[in-house]
């Protein structure tokens, strides 16, 4: 009897070895709705990853879907470079009325290209141009993107090595709680800035995530963020908040920095801004920083108009009042209870957890355990990913629109995975 | 009597000063079909820019539109990171069957993020990793993108200055015909490589466009491209063809380098690859270069599945046979005749033209004339842009699907603009 | 009556504005012997600066002078590139017999050019070549030289700005006691090295001074140096001790790191190595690091043979036994007593002091006071300089051969200056 | 019978593998006078290398020797940092009266440290500071020094690789005659500067040697140098002439650029400026460029006063009238005749020669032949070195004070070596 090995799929034969998520989730996904995906064989998966934070309103959200199909049906502009279009105006007006004005945020809006790294690149360019300095400070375990400018302020050694050139002009500083409270906040950073002999190249800007997603769900305290803003003001550095993963309501408020009461000089948004998972990004900055020359930064896909349509629809549907924020906080408490129960039930696992809004991390001393939990979760129909420098943290990032029941289901599955991997 | 100034639009008050196309085309566009856009006031414009080459099949192409709406309607995966999906498999298989296999191209396919600059960044990273060298050679008047890695191999001084840091690790070499035939091809480049005392850091790779679009429609001859490939082989450098603007049939064949009979080591594609103007990009490379580690380069919007759907539909509809290529060549001859007539009619303008397939440039000694031609064209309902280091070239980049009549109409309008700006 | 302004000297009209010491000491010096200089007007000055540590054996030391004149008289080789010469052999043998062998130090000896910065540049090159990494860690307030490689690991912001390019590939870490004991030693450095997400480019080497002279007479504790060596071993980084100012007996032992019981991988020496104030420098390294190709680093003045003659004479005269070290320790105690008395007498000045061997610093909270002390000292015939990032430290650096009486005289003058500047 | 291997010398056991000249000239040199060295075994060598151009007045020139010993005997200041001293004033006044004023050169004088690379580093810093740009253009096969700033504008790939980091901020341009007249001078350089899309970072300065010594005795024509100066003026770039090896009369006139009638913005001098082979260097620049802050560039051995004494004595003895220049030109003609005869006699060797003043190169198609000629010359008591990117050029660099008979002797020996290596 001969055994015929299964034919290799086109993913294995044609697609580059660089692919990654598909290795941990060996299925071919076909359809999705809300918090659920379905694969070709009809298996259903509960999504606790939400496109790495790009699907805050769930997959194929019906409200946005309707607006999107209408727009396509009527031959609205699809690709618009940076031309003025009806869809862009609608988005800009909605963004102003629903987001900026109620929060008293004075930002100008730039369309820097449709991805997060485009937004970060434009933010860094602008900061350097405004201040006339090259250096930028980032934080330990920061993640800001894969193009060279963004990668230079990203912490992960493996990703950095991919650059193939030495990454310079960036200096890492300790993120909040990096020393478990052993060291006063900003002691090192401030000393370097004040000491004319420190050897630190004076930075143009500081770039920070309020919660580090890729870095392991490290949550900065509000007072730490306020102290950082204050340090930036005292030392004439711009404060850039990279809100690509944590913005658009992930932590509760629309911007993740609202809770801290700070007003960054520059803000980057992407991932869930289109609402429908379509590529879109924004770079926001205080009007006095808008010293760009026309066309000084450009890009082909800055005008992804279908994304403007769903983005405006999402803002209208979810942010016209404070309902969304309240709901996220409530769901977050539900997750917190679930994780607490898991840790109580599994004291030997050594796991501990942290989070804000609907982004949570469950850390294991042994990275292999985190990996095993995610692998088992996949078998049980739950999509979970790890993060952190050693992939030691199981990351919970469900859609904000997930129902309490779904959330509960996912948490129960997670509990089972933790148990079964003991 | 008091005059009420017109209210400033949200584009003027809220959007950053960096916006550019919208300044030359002061209209608010609403809908589009094929080669025509319509603004809010109902004016119709004939599109000789095609989203900077992103709309080779015209706006909202009905074949692709049908496939796209069907996919959205049935809740196909929208945002898929690098997960395996039905839509991605369909695209990969179609790309292999319709494009790679018939051309005997052995490439692996990478999804580097949805924009051209993502593709270029990944190509440069890979080349540096493979060769273990930092330096890359680019060409005078090259354009490869706005993120730091791509910008360092881009020629334009104004765009480069936007980086705010010195751009290094790149060295420019003269593009084909840079010295009007005064200097043998690659004389300087080859001497530097062979001379151990030249001071050139040995490059990992050479990155080239076969026709420089942003650089002024500079067309490299096939023999120059072959000589470049040969030089790369002799000197152990990888050859990267950036086919972002010139690929997908713009010059006739699907890849712009086919005519020269070369096989680049790495190819970047974007702009018209999705066919519908949606963000999508590919990085192709010879299988022996596929030394990426899983996840070494990543990005949130690598799996823009609706774009995969339209991309596969476009390949099926237009590239299953040689019809598209023949048609583009024929249309190109029509443009050539039109430009010849214009130059004959306006000898005093000093204009001369060049191009391949459906990308053409009409250069004026005085950049102000090129600008005036485009401004007048807008008034007459024709969208035209300039390119070149001094914006001295009027660029013709209509959809490949434009009809002969539309093409004729546009050329007649262009002729009128040239006349009227004398 | 007309007043004729005094003619400007050639120093003011011809020499560049970059000159500095001559501004604080406005005299034209003519002759010198031991610890005393004499200016053209016959004024005598007691030297508490010793050529910034280049004249440890005093000015024109008679023993060395005799050897030098003999060598010149007999037409010994003056300029020898890196050719083998009698004088070089004598130096190498003496250095081996008197310095290396008794200390059981296995170093190979490189002549990197005659200045300290040549030695540092060669040390950094070698470290990078050995480890295949670009980055080097230095310390806050480090001083390693003015050429680009050395300047990149130097702390002073004013000197760094002189580079005219962004200085990269270096990262500063806190020197010993930078936080007054608030923070455990190497907490930050070690965390960055161990955390794969920290964003620190893994360093090839660490470069350190055991006592920072230019940085303000900051004295590293022996246990801190040992912990640093241990960290370097654990993390596969080379340890470079820059002993240019503190070597050759300045702190007591010949090498300043002997007291700590460490064996750096690479050591740089210069300043007092020739003994007579003539340009000479050495780079020492463990034999397994000697992977230089012949001629890979070179320089015209590597073979300053008269300096080899005085260097060998100085080693013979002062280092054949332990006398010099004992004497320096004794003189250091005399200085310590003097400074203690000064601080006791002037509690309001807020001054405090620190030092080792014959290098001491008296710090004032107000930099203007330190400056005033030095200015008054000059009037009273005592040469003193400030150091530190704000020039807030009066630096005591007398020749090691100074007599107790001379030392006492200088300390009394210093005390008077402190009093008179209150 | 046992064979005792000869004991390894301290040069082999203790000195680093980086040593080079001593490998080709395996002798231990002891004494020297004029154009002759004597080794320990009493063998005499005629010096056609002159300390790589540092001994233009011969070894231990008696006039300078007298002044030097007198100075040392009377305890003149030896090490003076940048303090005003009698010896420094005498040098500055002599330099002004004998060199600058008669040539109507307005330069300010900076003492940048005692080596050539110190001078180049200071020149590059100043140019970058003045122009506010990072980039500097150098030429193919340039040699400017071994510290990082100088190395980045040096051509030799082997030396560059020694840096251990990518050398950036420099761009090589073709030196005069790089293409054997095939290409108009500066065609490439000027096109890059004028084309806003070229991708060349606008340079702060151009650094050039009028005759490239290490690069293979490549002689720039006067008209090429004038055209370069003119290009620098038109394009707002500073012109730096590195006259370290070719200045101090090597090509006839004191400055090598005098013949071309140009006035560089910045000039570096070292090697023979002290006259006696002692470390000393100068950086000269137009007064309006003297924007240094006090102490912005410094260094321990900037005040090597014995070198100032011999430098002043050399200027007085050799440059008070035009005798030296005439004599060098005459000696140069003698060398030219000798080389002509050698090439005539050995047509098969393919050798050809070039030079100016008393710097000449005899190039062989096969580098091994050049090497063999030098090796045989050593056996016959003649010191000769190779240069050029492949060490293919035998370099003739005798003291300017060599007698016609000595010159003839050396040329005859060289002729014999060429014959015998056929």
UniProtKB/TrEMBL annotation, chains A, B, C, D:
Classification via CDD domains: OAT_like
Gene3D superfamilies: Aspartate Aminotransferase, domain 1 (3.90.1150.10), Type I PLP-dependent aspartate aminotransferase-like (Major domain) (3.40.640.10)
InterPro entries (alphabetical): Aminotrans_3, Aminotrans_3_PPA_site, Dat, Ectoine_EctB, PyrdxlP-dep_Trfase, PyrdxlP-dep_Trfase_major, PyrdxlP-dep_Trfase_small
EC numbers on record: 2.6.1.76
Cofactor(s) listed in the protein's UniProt record: pyridoxal 5'-phosphate
GO biological process: ectoine biosynthetic process
Keywords, ordered alphabetically: Aminotransferase, Pyridoxal phosphate, Transferase
One annotated GO molecular function: diaminobutyrate-2-oxoglutarate transaminase activity
Annotated Pfam families: Aminotran_3 (PF00202)
Pathway entry: Amine and polyamine biosynthesis; ectoine biosynthesis; L-ectoine from L-aspartate 4-semialdehyde: step 1/3
PROSITE patterns to which the protein is assigned, alphabetical: AA_TRANSFER_CLASS_3
Xref: NCBIfam families: dat (TIGR00709), ectoine_ectB (TIGR02407), PRK09264.1 (NF006733)
Family membership noted in the UniProt record: Belongs to the class-III pyridoxal-phosphate-dependent aminotransferase family.
Protein name per Swiss-Prot or TrEMBL: Diaminobutyrate--2-oxoglutarate transaminase
Origin species: Streptomyces fulvorobeus
Lineage: Bacteria, Bacillati, Actinomycetota, Actinomycetes, Kitasatosporales
């Amino acid at each position: 009897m001969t055994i015929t090995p299964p034919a290799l799929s086109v993913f294995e034969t044609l697609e580059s070895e660089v692919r990654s998520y598909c290795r941990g989730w060996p299925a071919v996904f076909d359809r999705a709705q809300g918090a659920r995906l379905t694969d070709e064989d009809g298996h259903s998966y509960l999504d606790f990853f939400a496109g790495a934070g790009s699907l805050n309103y769930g997959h194929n959200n019906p409200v946005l879907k309707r607006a999107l199909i209408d727009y396509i049906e009527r031959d609205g502009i699809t690709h618009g470079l940076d031309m003025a279009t009806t869809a862009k105006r609608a988005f800009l007006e909605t963004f102003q009325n629903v987001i900026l004005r109620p929060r008293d945020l004075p930002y100008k809006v730039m369309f820097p290209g449709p991805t997060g790294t485009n937004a970060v690149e434009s933010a860094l360019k602008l900061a350097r141009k405004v201040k006339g300095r090259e250096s930028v400070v980032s934080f330990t375990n920061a993640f800001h993107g894969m193009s060279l400018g963004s990668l230079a302020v990203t912490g992960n050694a493996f990703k950095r090595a991919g650059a193939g050139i030495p990454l310079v002009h960036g200096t890492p500083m300790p993120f909040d709680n990096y020393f478990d409270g052993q060291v006063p906040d900003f002691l090192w950073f401030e000393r370097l800035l004040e000491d004319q002999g420190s050897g630190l190249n004076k930075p143009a800007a500081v770039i920070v995530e309020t919660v580090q997603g890729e870095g392991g769900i490290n949550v900065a305290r509000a007072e730490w963020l306020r102290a950082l803003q204050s340090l930036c003001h005292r030392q004439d550095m711009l404060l850039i908040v990279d809100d690509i993963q944590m913005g658009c309501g992930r932590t509760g408020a629309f911007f993740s920095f609202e809770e801290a009461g700070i007003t960054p000089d520059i803000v980057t948004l992407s991932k869930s801004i289109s609402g429908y998972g379509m590529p879109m990004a924004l770079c926001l900055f205080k009007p006095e920083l808008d010293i760009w020359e026309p066309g000084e930064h450009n890009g082909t896909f800055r005008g992804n108009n279908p994304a403007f349509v769903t983005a405006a629809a999402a803002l209208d549907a979810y942010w016209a009042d404070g309902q969304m924020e309240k709901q996220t906080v409530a769901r977050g408490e539900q997750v917190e209870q679930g994780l607490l129960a898991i840790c109580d039930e599994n004291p030997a696992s050594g796991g501990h957890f942290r989070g804000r809004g609907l982004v949570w991390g469950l850390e294991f001393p042994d990275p292999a355990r985190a990996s095993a939990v995610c692998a088992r979760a996949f078998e049980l129909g739950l999509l979970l990913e790890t993060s952190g420098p050693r992939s030691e943290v199981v990351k919970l990032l469900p859609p904000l629109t997930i129902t309490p029941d779904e959330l509960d289901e996912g948490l129960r599955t997670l509990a089972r995975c933790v148990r079964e991997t003991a």
